Amino acid sequence: MTRRKSWDTYFMDIAYMVSTRSQCPRRHVGAVLVQGKKLLGTAYNGAPMGVPDCSEAGCMLVEEYEIKRVDGQEQVVAKQRCVRTIHAEQNLLLFTDRHDREGSIVYVTDQPCWTCANMLANSGIAEIVYHRSYPKDQDKVMALMNQVGIRFRRLENYEPPAGTDEAVTN
């Protein structure tokens, strides 16, 4: 007899399946909105509708700098990001209603970046569940979630469905 999946695994599997729609050569990200046990929306990262995506037109990378304190010393850290792509979490917020988001859970394949975390903090959701870490923004995102009272947790010991975790994650 097949063991029944937990709700966390079930919804994270769906997020990973959604991520397979992404054409981003750097990272495939999927997100789903869940209220109770009801799936209310899905989204993935990609260029705006009607615009060539990164696989067609190439990534539009910009370099940003951030000052971080490490062992009491300030260090300048460079981060690259693609500005052609709308993140999965941003698309999820664009294509779902505020009413549906109130008290809901977002399952996302990757820990949200700082910009997405800020948007999710204002979205009405109660919880974010993610699988892959995003160390570049991890500390400040976790601090923000604690400050605004959004439950924020990594799904440990999770294995994505076969064939869904193939994008480069840099």
UniProtKB/TrEMBL annotation:
The keyword ATP-binding does not apply. Its cofactor is Zn(2+). InterPro entries: APOBEC/CMP_deaminase_Zn-bd, CMP_dCMP_dom, Cytidine_deaminase-like, dCMP_deaminase, dCMP_deaminase-rel, Deoxycytidylate_deaminase_dom. Residues 6-155 form the CMP/dCMP-type deaminase domain. Gene3D superfamilies: Cytidine Deaminase, domain 2. Pfam families: dCMP_cyt_deam_1 (PF00383). PROSITE patterns: CYT_DCMP_DEAMINASES_1, CYT_DCMP_DEAMINASES_2. It comes from the Bacteria. Signal peptide: none annotated. CDD domains: deoxycytidylate_deaminase. Keywords: Hydrolase, Metal-binding, Zinc. Belongs to the cytidine and deoxycytidylate deaminase family. This is Deoxycytidylate deaminase. It comes from Paenibacillus thermoaerophilus.
